Amino acid sequence: MSISDRVRKSMEVGSWIRRMFEEGVVLKQQYGDENVFDLSLGNPIMEPPAEFHEELRRLAERPEPGLHRYMENAGYVETRVAVAAYLSRESGIALRNDDIIMTCGAAGALNVVLKTILNLEDEVIIFAPYFPEFINYIENHGGIARTLPTDEEFIPRLDALETAIGPRTKAVLINSPNNPSGAVYNKAFLKSLGDLLTEKGRELGNPIFLISDEAYRKLTYDGLECPWVWSCYQQSIVIASYSKDLAVPGERIGYVVAHPGLEKHDELVAGFVHCNRILGFVNASAIMQHLVQHLQGVSISVSEYQRKRDFLYKNLTDMGYKAFKPQGAFYLFPKSPLEDDIAFVNQLRQWHTLTVPGQSFGSPGYIRISYCTDDRTLEGSLTSFEKAARKFNLL
Amino acid sequence: MSISDRVRKSMEVGSWIRRMFEEGVVLKQQYGDENVFDLSLGNPIMEPPAEFHEELRRLAERPEPGLHRYMENAGYVETRVAVAAYLSRESGIALRNDDIIMTCGAAGALNVVLKTILNLEDEVIIFAPYFPEFINYIENHGGIARTLPTDEEFIPRLDALETAIGPRTKAVLINSPNNPSGAVYNKAFLKSLGDLLTEKGRELGNPIFLISDEAYRKLTYDGLECPWVWSCYQQSIVIASYSKDLAVPGERIGYVVAHPGLEKHDELVAGFVHCNRILGFVNASAIMQHLVQHLQGVSISVSEYQRKRDFLYKNLTDMGYKAFKPQGAFYLFPKSPLEDDIAFVNQLRQWHTLTVPGQSFGSPGYIRISYCTDDRTLEGSLTSFEKAARKFNLL
Predict the structure, then answer these.
(1) Cross-chain residue pair B250–A137, CB shorter than 8 Å
(2) What is the pTM of this model?
(3) Which domain holds residue B326?
(4) CA-CA distance, A317 to A334, in Å (whole number)?
(5) Which residues of A touch B10 (CB under 8 A)?
(6) CB-based contact B274 A14, cutoff 8 Å
(7) Are residues B194 and B156 in the same domain?
(8) A4 → closest Cβ in B67, B118, B140
(9) Are residues A147 and A35 part of one domain?
(10) Distance CA B107, CA B254 (A)
(11) pLDDT in tens, A21-46
(12) What is the CATH number of the domain that holds B347?
């Protein structure tokens, strides 16, 4: 007795990151917070924008009756109307509130979608490097995660995808801006991906869903815009979150967008709403739904993250590290100077800098550095990176 | 393609309540809100206590840095310390923060626990009438719900339980105060249940979990106290929620309590924390965790609900309805005057009163009336109940 076999297996697989986290806690106790440089977690250091605080104060000062009650399982209509109007304006695709389901963050949204569509042993294709939770989410609902490679700029390889798609393929799950690589997929790529999925779906007599996790959509750099999948593929489901835009990851608010052109759109949306309920989310927090209704388009300043990216990228590449320059999100994913990325991460840790090995993301030989941290931590970590660069002959 | 077979089946089973809800919406549009008496939903009409509003104002006026960030996957330590201290004081059992995991309401808590413990096709025993979502929650994680009967006062039949427990029995799930019956299990019953589970667990060489859903713990009447399971059975897991106590069901905050004496306690808690994360909840909302830290023991006034219960119970029994007098929660579960409870519910609906048939709760021949509604609705519904009493010869 105790925990189930599946959960035990999932805990063992995830244990490396947890061990790192725990050893970080020990390091901080031993050497003091200020002498440990934790670049392992994606927990944004920024505070929510002023508009968020104002709205919260407004709600708190004049509590309306019923503000904290249950609402429709899809979320408040007025919130979904506001989201649909904002997205329609931004994307040029006409969306209605019936295309939007408010969820417990992007993680809740993904679980709701996967629960709704997956029969046992259906396959969902993901691309390495991937957000490791994708595998848990897929397996939660009896699905099988199939991992395919990306090219040297971390763009999914469509030739590999073409070969891999088969009768059990239910969905392809992409994430752009990407955690951990920082890649942003351009419109031409999305169009080719959409065309391939259309062709393959026709061939197999069953449309393939494209699930597009856009939790980092607002975090793109150098004026780059993250293109919309809607004009590229009709059978698409977008996953969104306010965690990064508003710097409120602890509040668990995001949403699903069902493309209006989805086959059996209404049945699918009814399924999402049902699964939102039965998975135990019920809804996203009522107060947060009220807040975001009035915060469409509001976002933290991206320039801060861009400055941090530039600082880290320049310093590391000057030391001889090979890295793709992130176009979005807040991670750098450089090559590990050692083939064994775990050994390299352990070496950095001995010098009090915490990172995550690439093999946690399906890409051994890399490490992930999170730069959504304060400048002191970023600056302090450079000593370890420089020591490592000398030791492993990069400099 | 579209939704999965399992979700389709679950939607069909649940469709009766949804249809009722939707027909209620149509009725309200046709006849006006004030002429439709909706007793179908358990969405409390009460407002949160003043202390809740004060705490929210305090947080909104002086936003502390990091207030909305990710926290540990078990929830904030300071919140869990406060919960453990409160429960220890109330129950006399020494609990530590390591026994508490903050969750997305009781629904989130139940899904986390079931995901953690269930291997495929493990059985969870529930008792009719039951909260219908229990079946969805169990099946979400590959478990099998096995339903056993209760006696005429809605207390689980231990003789039936003794026969039903077998090698695949992983857990027994109880709910007291009970939705929909209003029964509160007394200490003697819990002790006998605990003894039976101890004996059976020993016999089978594997402890059986007792999962105690106590979402309505604070809502008991006539001075009755809801006893604690901890002194009755060590292998117990308590599910709690602030939804009813603080009248904030839309905010999704509750917790799991792992009995300190649980076999493999720490592994189990690590499993809960892991599943809290991978199911997509991640945590309960950060702001709500901060709030409840300072609201331990605060609760809405039960006397309001007791008054509504007394009003409804007296009026309906005076009309000749047979009903168990609820000891807690906010539902009345009278016998349907027609054997076919759906036909009776349909009859009431024609007179603009909305209730739910007992067969949705596994108990045909009953109906559920929710009285967590305003007095006008309760009073207005009496005409329909009286018409029905005359038509079906109760009066």
Answers:
(1) no
(2) 0.97
(3) 5-48+301-391
(4) 9
(5) 274, 278
(6) yes
(7) yes
(8) B118
(9) no
(10) 8
(11) 777 888 999 999 899 999 998 888 89
(12) 3.90.1150.10
